Amino acid sequence: MTRSFFCLLAALALEAPVYGQSAAFEVVSIKPAPQDKKELQRHLGTRIDSAMADFGGVSIMMLITRAYGLNSFQVLGTPELNTTRFNILAKLPAGSSTAQVPEMLKTLLRERFRLEAHQDTRDFRVYSLTATKGGPKIPVKPADYDAATAHGSPPVTMARLADFINQYRDYLRLDRPVLDQSGLKSEYLIDLAAFMQPSLDAAMAAPKDGANPTAVESAVFGAVENLGLRLEPRKVSMTALVIDRIEMRPTPQ
User: Fold this and answer.
1) Cα gap 194→58, rounded to integer Å
2) Nearest to 249, CA basis, from 117, 85, 35, 54
């Protein structure tokens, strides 16, 4: 951690009051994520320890799903929730634990993004993400994995993979969201960009008017099958979070 960053935290602490609730970050810095893709990739992903939470290139949707433990399709709100991205650095209060981060994110969303929402129960038509008989064809995160020295995308769970596909759902013309029902709890080494690229290429090649979604959908199914997984259509009843109000620009702390 650089000296300049600690100076930034100190300045923020002097300028802003600490939230009145115990389940809140002590100091938070929120900045718009870079628009340039290469620059965005340099600070992409989430790193959390007992002292700091670092959210790189995170959308408001990602914050909401982590805070409330939901899939992105269970959050009903404006499409901008997926497209507006930020770099967020947050200091955890002394003595707190990473298990409190979801509650801290709820406070952050209420205080800085003015989130107001209510829960409901909805029926969803989904693609269930499951493993094939042979199991996943992707490596499990090794026990000695070190995020500080590792290259490429950070390890992901099957739930994260499903949510990643959902972020591109409209562009890929999928008629239903993807839900992880694989039962796999490990983290896997998946290059998400490489995984998604064939499907994105198929979507770009498809005619804009009167396009047959089958070709794009087949590309998505093929990419999933290459990982030793599959997508099956199902209908499920689940909790939904309905967004009543949210501001896309964070208020000053």
Assistant:
1) 19
2) 85
Q: How far apart are the first and last CA of the chain?
A: 22
Distances from the Cα of 222 to the Cα of 129, 197, 216, 217, angstroms = 13, 12, 10, 9
From CA 213, how far away is CA 109, in angstroms rounded?
Answer: 36
- Separation between Cα atoms, residue 13 and residue 19, nearest integer Å: 11
CB of 27 closer than 8 Å to CB of 10: no
Instruction: Residue 252: count other Cβ atoms within 10 Å of its Cβ.
Output: 7
The alpha carbon dihedral of 14, 16, 21, 22 has a sign of negative
Strand pairing of 45-48 and 52-59? antiparallel
Ramachandran area for residue 190 (φ above 0: left; ψ -120 to 50: alpha; else beta): beta
User: Containing H/E element for 119?
Assistant: strand 116-131
The residues, ordered by sequence, that sit 6+ positions from 95 with a Cβ below 8 Å of its Cβ are none
Whether the CB-CB separation of 121 and 238 falls below 8 Å is answered with yes
92 touches 104 (CB < 8 A)? yes
Average pLDDT along the chain? 85
Q: How confident is the model at residue 208 (pLDDT cuts 50, 70, 90)?
A: low
What tokens appear for 6 in the block?
């600690």
> 110-142 pLDDT, tens per residue?
999 999 999 999 999 999 999 999 899 999 999
- As a whole number of angstroms, the distance between CA 176 and CA 18 comes to 42
Better pLDDT: 74 or 252 = 74
DSSP assignment string, 213-229: HHHHHHHHHHHHHTTTE
Pairing outcome for strands 116-131 and 229-245:
antiparallel
